[in-house]
Design a protein that fits this description.
- 18% of the residues lie in helices and 27% in strands.
- The protein has 1 helix and 8 strands, in the order ββββββββα.
- The protein has a two-stranded antiparallel sheet. Strands 2-7 form a two-stranded antiparallel sheet.
- By secondary structure, it is of the alpha+beta class.
Length: 74
Amino acid sequence: MSGPVWGHGAVAGIVERGDAILLVRQQGPEDPEPSWALPGGCIEPGESIMRALRRELREETGIELQEVGLLLYV
């Protein structure tokens, strides 16, 4: 699946299993404490939104994205 190619921006995915939603614990260098967030990150130059979402999900959780529902572009 392909989509628009962006030179900047970010992606995040909502991964559901039953009533549960997957969150990742993260802490940036400026953050005083870790926080919970949807898995995602920056779109690399020349990378499609879908490719970025698949890569970020794999990098942050080890999950290989198989099925994609609706996409939201903002």
